[in-house]
Amino acid sequence: MIDANGRGVLRRKPVDDIDDPPQGAGLKRVMGTWQLTALSLGGLVGAGVFSLSGVVANELAGPGVLLSFLIAVLASAAAALCYAEFTSMIPKAGSAYTYAYAVLGELAGWLIGWDLLLEYTAIVAVVAIGVSGYLSYLVGQLGLDLPAWMLGAPGTGDGHVVDLFAMVLCLLLAWLLNRGAKSSARVETALVVMKIVLVLVVVVAGAFHINAGNYTPFLPYGLGGAITGAATAFFAVYGYDAMSAAAEESADARRAMPRAIIYSLGIATVIYVLVCVVLLGMQHYSEIDVRSPFSGALAAVGLPGLALIVAIGAVFGIVTSMFANMLAVTRVWFAMSRDGLLPAWFAKTHEVRKVPHRVTWVVGVVSALIAGLLPIREAAELTNIGILVAFIVVAVSVVVLRRQRPELERGFRCAWVPVVPGIGVVFSLWLISQLDWVTWARFVGWMAVGLLVYAFYGYRRSALADKSVAGMR
């Protein structure tokens, strides 16, 4: 099935002409550097600020949560630099799927793409469930008594039948994405700016209520606790992965994408450092409310009004993470369909808005069903491992392409290759080793289904299949 020329499952998309899609098959390039940065920040600054910082501090690291996030950011930066190099060479939709297809071959690209379809869709559902919880709380604060059947998935409470808020949110985001890349990016940018302003207001207000005594002991669970906390924190600092899937909608992708990745990770790092310092200064780690860390801490120091504002802002802030991940999965699906590995029907773009509207509605409906009918823990078990595998593939691909095609023009070059990619690979492998068997079982099952789909459909329908056959004659 394969040979040294890259036929069969090893056939590769040519890097040299990968920038030129078939006539009418491309997306509209409308996003600038700061819109891309906002899209990345939408994934980077969300649940990590409003939820994970408190969870890691309370259960794993204490004030050492600051060290946890710094370790996570350093590990994430290794992968980010690899993504930045690829986006400067291959400014196409699909992120890790497209990079793997161009460097490691069709089968590797297929497996990563198939994996990301599930991972990103599940992340959208998980975040929707989390936002739904905030919305239910806020509605309760307004004195409204909602029927129990609409407040959660079966098994999550008495009388719960479906999480209606979560389902509606998924469908609303699908509608927003179908309004066009420019319009939806404006909304995302506005929400991200609002979120960052809110976080800065909280940081400034909380700084006046810092008690230095709350920082001791700094490592109550030892250095091991802070390192373990880094594994949890890592899942809050990879938003640039989702943003890279939108490369084909960047006005100047070769320059804008690397800049957006670096800018967003830098801004996110500063925000996480400030958040950790202020949160742990306001309230002792053992007293932090893991469900709403900032709201609880602000209420504890006598700022209940600001606590309510934070709860409202958290809803809009976390929605930006949903947006980034839904955009990512639709662009990966679009790229796979355009390449012939999935039915071409999904690659059809809107005649005016030039967005993959069919795929977007499918993702919206599927994520709504997951969010509405599965408890958050079961939905979360569908995530995590795929993103880490994608990081490994991208890091390895950077090293391989440096050796295979050193002459290729690179608008951005990852520093210290192969050391930096190696750090990303080692950290990702370590995190994968920490995942439970249920996550592994679901991952293996999904991959097995993917191999069957590729064997009976994608392999023969691939856009490169005819070229491969021609090359054998």
Automatic annotation (TrEMBL):
InterPro entries for this protein: AA/rel_permease1
Gene3D superfamilies: Amino acid/polyamine transporter I (1.20.1740.10)
Subcellular location: Membrane
Membrane topology reported for the UniProt record: Multi-pass membrane protein
Keyword Ligase assigned: no
A Gene Ontology molecular function term of the record: amino acid transmembrane transporter activity
Keyword field: Membrane, Transmembrane, Transmembrane helix, Transport
A Pfam entry, by short name: AA_permease_2
One GO CC term on file: membrane
Transmembrane segments: 36-57, 64-84, 96-113, 120-139, 159-177, 189-212, 218-240, 261-285, 305-334, 355-376, 382-401, 413-433, 439-457
Name of the protein in its database record: Amino acid permease
Organism: Saccharopolyspora elongata
